Task: structure prediction
Amino acid sequence: MPDGWPLTGRGDELRMVDALGRRRGAASGVVLAGAPGVGKTRLAKEALAVAAQRGALTRWAAASASARTLPLGAFAPVVASIGTDPTQLVRQAGEALLAGAGPAGVMLGVDDGHLLDELSALLVHQIVLRRAATVVVTLRTGEPTPDAVTALWKDGHLERLELQALTLDDSTALLEAALGGPVTGAAVRSLWTITRGNVLYLRHLVDGEREAGRLREVEGVWQWTGTPRLTSGLSELLQERIGALSPKERDVVELLAFGEPLGVAVLTGLTDGAAVEAVEARGLIEVTLDGRRLQARLGHPLYGEVQRASCGQVRARRLRGRIAEALAATGARRADDLLRRAVLTMESDRSFDPDLLTAGAHRAAALVDAPLASRLAGAAIAQGGGFEARLTLATVLVGVGQEARAELADLVANARTDRERAEAAILQVASLAWMSARPEAAAEVLDAADAEVEDPAARRTLAALRSCLDAAQGRVREAAGTASAVLAAPGIPDHVEAFASWGLTLALGAIGKADQLGPVVERGRAAAVRAADAAWLGVTLAGWHTYGVGLAGYVDEALTIARAAEEHFGDAPLPAAISSILAGFAETTHGRVRTARRRLKEAHASLAPFGIAGGWLAACLMQMPQVLATCGEREAAREALVALEATKHPGLTLLAPAMRVSEAWVLACEGGMSAAIETARCAAAEAASRGQSAVEVLALHTAVCFGDRTGAGRLAELATFVDGPRAPAAAAHAEALATSDATGLLAAAERLEAMGALLLAADAAAQAAAVYDHNGQRGSALAAATRAHRLAAECEGAVTPALRALDQPLPLTDREREVAALAATGLPNREIAERLTLSVRTVEGHLYRACHKLGVTDRGGLGELFR
Result:
C-alpha cells in the first residue's frame, strides 16, 4: 500500500506471527487465509519487516496463474533453476533460499499459496517439515489449493488464521490515518457498509472519491457526499472477482443489482433456477431467511455498483420495469416492497401511477430519506398527483432545510379545506420560523391561519404548531399549556400529535420536568413514524429529549438517546449532523471533552451547507466554546464564541441563557474569573425570568464550579421542584463551597460522579483539595487532589479553573491571580481594568504584587508560568 495507508486492525495477528517466528525447536509459521482484499499480503509483508528488524533473513515469493505453468515458477525471481531433475531442483532451491541465514534464522513469505505450482508447493512443504525457516503463506479462502500446501495446516505443521474484514472501529482508525484527520461517523459508516471492511476495496474507493472531490475536508473534518463511482482499478478488481457469467447467470446478478433484495421465488420466476443456484454456489449472491420468505441479495454491495455501471440505460430501465411488475404480481403490501415498486417504476420504461409514487414518497419520508422522498413526490406531482403529493414534497424540503418557497406557494394554492389550509400553514410557519429565521413573519402567518379556519380539528393543528413556536421562543409555560391541551383532545391526527409532543418536549426540558419527558417523546416519535411526512420530527424529538435529560443530570440516559438516534436515523446529511450534536452534548455532560469536541466538529462540518437553517448550527456552536475551553484551547474557544454570536438563530431564543453559559466558560478559560462568574449568574437570572429552571440550575452550578459562593440558597430552592439528580447535587456542592466544608465537597463529588458528570465531580474534588490545603490538612488535600486528577484523566485531560488552580497552587489572592492570568494572555492593563471594572492603577497594584510573589518581572514571565 502507498504511504498513508498503515496496517490497521491487525496488531494481534502481527504479534502472533512474530511470536511464531521466535519459536525454537518446532515448526513455526502460519497460513493466512481470507477473502480477496482483506489484507493478507500486507500482513505477511509486515511480518517479514518485523523479522528483518530483529536480524532474520527474509525471502518473498509471489505465486500467480501465469507462473503456475513453470516448475518453481513462484521462486523464479529468488532462485536460479539448475538442471531438470525435480528432486535436484527442489534441493537446490531450498539451499538458495536459506543461504546467508544468521542466528535469527529465516522467514519465508509466500503470497497466494493456492496458485503455487506442484514443485513450489513441495519446496514450501519440505522447508516446513525440516523446520528450516518460519513460513508465512497467504491463500484465498474457497480456492482449490495444492495438496502439499493444504497439508501444512491439516497435518498441524502450521497454524491457520482466517483473516476477517475490518470492523467499523478499525476502518475508522485506518481512514483517519490515511487521510490525516478525523472523518465523520456518517462517512465511515457509509464507506464501511459499501466495502464491508475490505481494505483493498476501501483504498480504491477512497482514492477515487477523494480525487473526484466527493470525499473532502470541511472545517478540518473529512466528509463524504454523494454516491460512489467506481475507478477503473476497482471495477477491474470486482470484475475479476465476479468472473465470467453465462447469459442466464448475468440476468440473475443484474436483476439483483437493480432490485435487491428479491424473494427467491420472484427471482427464479424472472430468471432460471439453475442459474440462481450456480451464482449462489460461487458466492456472488447470498440467500437468507426473512420471516417466512427466502430473500436473495448480492454477495457484496460493490457487485451491484459494477453491474449497474456496465449496464446500458435502455436495458436498465427494462430490467427495473420487469422487477416492478413481478413485485406487483406477488400482491406484496409491505411498506418496503411498496417503496421499491415505486422507485423501480419511476426509473423504468413503464407508465407511472401517481398514487403508487405518492405512497412510495410517504415511505421514503418515514425512513428520513429526503432525496428519495423528494424525487418520488416530484414525479407523482408531474403525473397528476394531488394535494398529498405536494404536502409530502414541501414537508420533506422544509424538514431538511432546503429552499421550498415555490413548493409552499403551490401547496397553499391547492389547499381546499380547512384541514388542508392548516397543514399548509404548518409548513409555512416552520419554514419561516426555523429555516428562514423569521419568527415574527411566522407568527403573522399562524395568526392569519388561526383567524381563517373554523374546523376544530384544523384549529388544533395550528395550536400544536403554536406550542412549538412558543417553546422555541422561550415562552415555555405557555407552550406547555397549549401542547398539553392539544394532546388531551381525543382522536387527534398523527402529525398533530407529533408537533404537540415536540412543543411539550421543548418546554418540559427547559422548565425542569425531565421525569415527564419519556412518555411524551415516545408518543411523539410513534406518531411521527405513523404520519410518515412528519418522520423528520423523530430526530428533532431525540435532540430535545437529550437536552432535557442532560440538563437534569440523567447522563447515562442522554448518552443512550444520542447513540440510539445515530443508529436509527442513519447517515442522511442533516440527521447525521444532528445525531453528532446530540452525541457532543451528551459527551460534554459526561465530561469526555475531547470526544465531545470531535463529535461537534463533525456536526459543524456537516452543517456547513445548511447555514443557520433549522437552528442546528446554533445548537452545535452553543456547546463548542465550552468544549474548547475545557480542552484548554483558549484562542479557539474565543473564536467559537464569535462564531456563535454570528449564527444566533432568532427562532430559537430558548437557547439564549445557555449560550451565555458558554460565554462564561470562555471568560474563565481566559482567566477572567469574576467576569465569568458574573456572566454565569446573569445567565441564571435570564433563565429564571423565562421560567427555564433547569437552565438556571446549569448556570448557577457553573458559577459554583468557578468558585462562586453566593448561589447555595437559590440552588437549594430549585432542588425542591426541578427533576433529576443534578439540582440537589448542585445545591449540596454550592452549600459545601459556601461554608468551606471540604468533607461536603468530597460528598458532592461522589454524588456527581455517581450521576455520570465526571468533570463536575472533578471540580468539586479539586475545590475540596484547596480547602483541605488551606486548613493545613496535607494528607486529606493530597487524597482529594488525587481523586480530582483521576477524574480529570477520565475526562480526557480536561482543564477547568478549579483543576488549573489545583495544578498551579500560586501564593496569590483570588484577585491577584485573576489579574495575573489575564496579563499572562497579553492583555494590556487598560483592557484588564475594563473587563474587571477596576481602575488601571488598581490593576497595576495587583499585577505588581503578583509578580513580586511569583518572582517574575514581566508579562512574558507570567505567561510562561501560567502555561
The radius of gyration is 33 Å. The first helix runs from residue 11 to 21. The chain has 44 helices and ten strands. The beta strands are 29-34, 57-62, 106-111, 134-140, 159-162, 215-218, 221-224, 262-263, 285-290, 293-298.
